[in-house]
């Protein structure tokens, strides 16, 4: 299983790098649209939507994402920023307030369309962030995403080697506090290497600020991971899909990105509005 995960992850990362730095804007938009559409297909399944209802859900999600792309290209940047700000703000409320309370309470909503609406706040701001951050700088998007990847890798191996104390046994029995500690250490080391090699360490307090942001990123990534695990547990499935060998579905691969990328997008929009 580990070998298959590594092979799949390596291929995906190579393809991602090629797309990130090689695709024209319209090609990147198409890729993001495809990602949001696949995420909607899997979220419909987790929400319990079937048949025509599932088709209507992912088609509406796809149309909404496409409509926002069209809107971005036809209005002034200030109007575009306000629309994105609204979506990012919804995502922040979801991940900072709603999801932690949801997980602590062990809430299991029975309304399929309520879960579907939550899926829009999970998927659409993530897609927008991938567009905004790449337009600002592909390197910024790459850094934000690789911080999450480093957290995931460090947590996996630290948990395997030292994991004893369960983080949330009722939601995801495999996750441990030792894994979280490993993620913190791994991200700290990664951020220090990147900041030092780029020369950003000369700019105090930017240097320690980035490290603290990295720790915040780990916390958000854990919340995103646990939330998808809770939704899968309610749906009675192990994986969100079978698209990626060794990983499951697309949502299984990007769960931590859905809870982190919107925050980076929000920071970028707020900087523009200053």
UniProtKB/TrEMBL annotation:
Q: Name one GO cellular component term.
A: plasma membrane
The UniProt record lists the EC number as: 2.7.7.41
Q: Does the keyword Cell cycle apply?
A: no
Task: Cite the entry's keywords alphabetically.
Answer: Cell membrane, Lipid biosynthesis, Lipid metabolism, Membrane, Nucleotidyltransferase, Phospholipid biosynthesis, Phospholipid metabolism, Transferase, Transmembrane, Transmembrane helix
Which EC class does it fall in? transferase
What pathway is this protein said to act in by its record? Phospholipid metabolism; CDP-diacylglycerol biosynthesis; CDP-diacylglycerol from sn-glycerol 3-phosphate: step 3/3; Lipid metabolism
In what way does this protein cross or attach to the membrane?
Multi-pass membrane protein
Membrane-crossing residue ranges in chain numbering: 6-36, 56-73, 85-106, 113-133, 139-159, 180-200, 206-227
A biological process (GO) of this protein is:
CDP-diacylglycerol biosynthetic process
Tell me what reaction this enzyme catalyses.
Answer: a 1,2-diacyl-sn-glycero-3-phosphate + CTP + H(+) = a CDP-1,2-diacyl-sn-glycerol + diphosphate
Gene Ontology MF annotations? phosphatidate cytidylyltransferase activity
Where is the major localization of this protein? membrane
Q: Please report which protein family the annotation says this sequence is part of.
A: Belongs to the CDS family.
Its name, as the record gives it, is Phosphatidate cytidylyltransferase
